[in-house]
Write a structure and sequence with these properties.
Blueprint: H1 11-24, H2 30-49, E1 54-57, E2 60-63, E3 67-72, E4 75-82, E5 85-88, E6 91-93, H3 95-103, H4 109-112, E7 114-116, E8 124-125, H5 126-139, H6 147-182
Antiparallel strand pairs: 1-2, 3-4, 3-7, 4-5, 5-6, 7-8
Region (Disordered): 177-198
Biased composition (Basic and acidic residues): 177-192
């Protein structure tokens, strides 16, 4: 059996960690700092694997614990996302179903419902939140983080362009073949043929 290696980190990473610990005045050894960082990373990765519960309302995802409210006449009416359902008055409803239960038909849930996400203090109108989200999605052009990602994106774009070009060439080729076939004598009417004059 091989003896355990002292330094399992790449040398440049080990050196950067040493330099950082010295510069920050930390009392941790390099091994302790690496151990803490790895534990934190494992913990964070484990959290991301846990299933996220919530209610999907068209473009909006309302995480579990999100509160909804609607003002009608003199009072407020509340609902909450529990698990994967929106619960209002002890039963699962849709946002539209909530507005109908409160005020009857003719209400726009995007306009009339206000949301408070878990951990937030402020209420925000559902329609406004949806508009902001849609605007962010339009602007969210994530630049590639590495040269490999940039090359991969460029290769994918080139592949799509080549596929489109091949499709266009095949279409033009088909059209030109069809036009040529129409001019073949076997496809012409007798009245379309001109007589040869000697």
């Amino acid at each position: 059996m091989n003896a355990p290696r002292e330094n399992v980190l790449p040398p440049h990473t080990w050196q950067r960690l040493c330099d950082f610990l010295i510069a920050s005045g930390s009392t941790l050894s390099v091994a302790q700092a690496a151990d803490e960082a790895i534990r934190a990373w494992i913990s964070e990765q484990s959290k991301s694997k846990e299933p996220l519960h919530g209610y999907q309302w068209k473009q909006l995802f309302l995480p579990e614990g999100t509160q909804l409210r609607m003002k009608y006449l003199q009072g407020y009416h509340f609902a909450q996302v529990e698990g994967d359902q929106l619960v209002f008055g002890q039963r699962a409803v849709t946002p539209r179903g909530m507005t109908q239960a409160i005020s009857g038909d003719g209400r726009n849930a995007w306009r009339d419902l206000w949301l408070r996400m878990p951990g937030e203090r402020q209420w925000i109108n559902a329609g406004l939140l949806r508009s902001r989200l849609m605007a962010q999605r339009k602007l969210a052009v994530k630049p590639p983080e590495t040269a490999a990602e940039a090359l991969s994106a460029a290769a994918k774009a080139m592949g799509q362009a080549l596929t489109a070009a091949v499709t266009l060439i095949e279409h033009v080729d088909h059209q030109s073949t069809t036009v040529l076939e129409r001019r073949q004598p076997k496809n012409r009417r007798q009245t379309d043929l001109m007589e040869d004059v000697d």
